[in-house]
Amino acid sequence: MAALNGKWKLVSLDNFELYLDAVGVQGESRERALKLLTPENNIVQDISIDGDNISIVTITPVSPIEVNAQNGVEFVSRYLDGREIKTLFTVDGDTLVEEISGPFSSKIVRAIEGDQMVMKMSAGDVTSTRRYERA
Known about the structure:
Elements: E1 6-14, H1 16-22, H2 27-36, E2 44-50, E3 53-59, E4 65-70, E5 75-78, E6 84-92, E7 95-101, E8 106-113, E9 116-123, E10 126-134
Antiparallel strand pairs: 1-2, 1-10, 2-3, 3-4, 5-6, 6-7, 7-8, 8-9, 9-10
């Protein structure tokens, strides 16, 4: 799993607007996400997986978003628009899987493809792909 560890800078994304629609992000939260969570805003994910400890710090123009989790242990948190969600992270070989449930369901898979970290965010039949390069 050491392959995912480190800082990753967002370089491209697709279908993000459709993904936000699929998970029900609306209003001001939707507009802020579309404006700020883009490659032009130097989004960086700092990932650390050490045994069962998982830490992801996403650096955004507004503020860092930190998630600390245990492999295989579900926890309750808030989504970017404030809704309460349940999240479960699992390490599967060199892949980090994040499953979200609550007012919506989503599966986020982070994996290495070549020299990039690819983050596929799926909800229903919509998938948004975010590609990152080492920062």
